[in-house]
Structure formats: C-alpha cells, structure tokens
Design a protein that fits this description.
Largest sheet: 4 strands, mixed
Number of strands: 6
Strand order of the largest sheet: 2-1-4-3
Family: Belongs to the steroid 5-alpha reductase family.
Low-confidence stretches: none
Number of helices: 8
Distance between the termini: 53 Å
GO molecular function: oxidoreductase activity, acting on the CH-CH group of donors
Radius of gyration: 25 Å
Organism: Phanerochaete carnosa (strain HHB-10118-sp)
Mean pLDDT: 93
Strand content: 5-15%
Order of helices and strands: EEHEEEHHHEHHHH
Number of domains: 2
Main location: endoplasmic reticulum
Structural class: alpha+beta
Keywords: Endoplasmic reticulum, Lipid biosynthesis, Lipid metabolism, Membrane, Oxidoreductase, Transmembrane, Transmembrane helix
Helix content: 40-55%
Shape: elongated
C-alpha cells in the first residue's frame, strides 16, 4: 500500500481542506502512476477533473507526466505532491474548430453583403472570386483536419487561451484580410485591377494551381503525421516521406506557400501581415519541434532543415 499527500500551490475553491491524503490499497509506488493520483484526487474533489490538474513534486514547478510512476519520480509512501488548478479546460479539437470558424463567417459576410461594410455594392473581379474561393476552401479544409485528421498529445488546454489563439484567425485572417481584398479597390472596375496582371486569366489560373498543390501537399503531410500516432496514444516516431525527408515541418512550408500565393495575387498589406505573423509563429513551433525530435531520437534523427529548404 502507498499513500500520497496532495497540497495546493495556492488556495482553490475546488479543493477545500488541503492537504489531503490519498491511499492506494494493495498497490506500490512502482505501479501507481501520476494519472492514477489525478483520478483519485478527482474522486475526492469531483469538480477538479484530471485535465484541470497540474501535479508537480513539492517545491518544484515542472509538470509530471501522467504515465510516470511514483517511484520513477522519486516518490515513496507518504510522499507529497503539489496540485495547481489550470482553470476550465477545453478540447484542442474544439479550440481549432472555433479558431477557423471566424474566417468562415466573416469572409462570406463581407463578400456577399459588401454594402453593409463599404457603403456600396461591389462588382467582384475575377481576382476577388479566386481569393474568396481559396480562403473558404482553406479554412473548410482546416475544419475537416481538426475533426477527422489531427491527433493531439494533449487532450485539452485552458479555455481562456481560446480568445488569444483566435485573434490571428478571426481578426488578421478574418476581418482585416476580408475587408481589404473584397473592397472596391479590388473590384472589377478598379484601376488597380483593370488591364493589369491581376486581371489576367492565365496569371490567376497559374496562381490557383500552385495554391492547390500547396494545400493538397499540406493535407498529405498532416495525414503522414496522423498515421504515426495510433488513436488514443501519445506515440511519437520520426516522420518520413513527402516533404519530411528534407524538412522537419513541411506542413508549415506548404502553408506558407499557399498564403504567399494569396499575397502575390492581391499585393494586399492585410495578406502580407497575416502571412508574416503566421510564419513567425510557425518558425517558433518548427524550432521547438526540431529540437524535441533531436532530443528524443538523437542520432536516429536525420539532418533536416526546420521549415524552409536550403534556408531555415
């Protein structure tokens, strides 16, 4: 039998009367895991569900992995763990669905009801029609991937983060981008469009072809990553194949190409801001993923660029 004392890093209304002692009858520290402790703590304090808990060793701040046993983290009978309330949680799938829903609502509104936003009707140019179709297809694809393709190592995140994470898509990729590209500046009668390359059917079709290749390639890399992790597991493996033989994060590379095409087609400041902001964040994630792969797989991880071939 092993018992664990749970104290709190700060007072919480979800678990009054801490510290509490949890007993695991008939089990040793070699068998009881951090996940077992979380479940036992929830049984005692039902509103403090496991995904809301961060458990760490007393006096330390590092979160303990759910699969670790008590003995592996140096805890024996009577040892103490500290719990931190992470706040209300929301699934990663729901987070992404909310994020990508913003542009799917904003773009149709500004495209189909321009008088509401610009004070006048807009005769849409071929360029606007192409961009509208590409943006809608992109975010519908994102929604599909969020629900049916992606598998997450962490099941939830703090609900408060939804507002922060949604800013990029709802404001930059939604309101700002839509307001710029569906405006009269890009209309069929605009001097910015008439008799320019932006009104050239061959140019628009060529851009759309490259964009479509980038989108399909991005989906293919996501499917490769999905197949590396069986459903319900946190298994990690070195990805190989389409794009991965040269780049750690080819999905980011193809994402950048897709949005670069929109920038090249429109020349819009809003499109460039969205691309630059997104590329910056993806670069941070790519560096982190590259470092984690090298740390986890060591010499078994092949030499690759992080995000952009021959550059970064």
């Amino acid at each position: 039998m092993v018992s664990v004392t749970i104290s709190s890093t700060k007072p919480t209304s979800l678990a009054k009367g801490l510290p509490a002692i949890l007993d695991f009858s008939g089990k040793s520290a070699d068998v009881v895991t951090v996940a077992d402790v979380k479940r036992a703590f929830t049984a005692k304090y039902p509103n403090f569900y496991p995904s809301r808990q961060k458990l760490s060793l007393k006096g330390e701040s590092k979160s303990l992995p759910d699969e670790a046993t008590l003995s592996s983290i140096g805890l024996s009978d009577g040892g103490e763990l500290a719990v931190k309330d992470l706040g209300p949680q929301i699934s990663w799938t729901t987070v992404f669905v909310i994020e990508y829903l913003g542009p799917l609502v904003v773009h149709p509104l500004m495209y189909h009801v321009p008088k509401l936003f610009y004070g006048q009707d807009v005769q849409h140019s071929s360029l606007q029609k192409y961009v509208y179709g590409m943006v809608m297809a992109h975010f519908l694809k994102r929604e599909y991937e969020s629900v049916f393709v992606h598998r997450y190592s962490h099941g939830t995140m703090p609900f408060a983060y939804v507002f922060r994470n949604s800013f990029h898509y709802h404001i930059l990729g939604g309101v700002t981008l839509a307001y710029a590209v569906y405006s009269p500046t890009y209309s069929a009668a605009s001097s910015y469009i008439l008799d320019t390359i932006r009104d050239n059917p061959m140019f628009l079709k060529a851009c759309a072809a490259v964009w479509l290749w980038a989108e399909v390639s991005n989906l293919k890399t996501h499917l490769i990553l999905r197949d590396l992790r069986p459903a319900g597991t946190k298994k990690r493996a070195v990805p190989y194949g389409y794009g991965f033989n040269m780049i750690t994060c080819p999905n980011y590379f193809f994402e950048i190409i897709g949005w670069f095409i929109v920038c090249a087609m429109t020349g819009s400041y809003a499109a460039w801001v969205f691309l630059i902001a997104g590329s910056y964040m993806m670069a941070i994630w790519a560096i982190k993923k590259h470092k984690n792969y090298k740390k986890e797989f060591g010499k078994d991880y092949p030499k690759r660029y992080k995000m952009i071939p021959f550059v970064f």
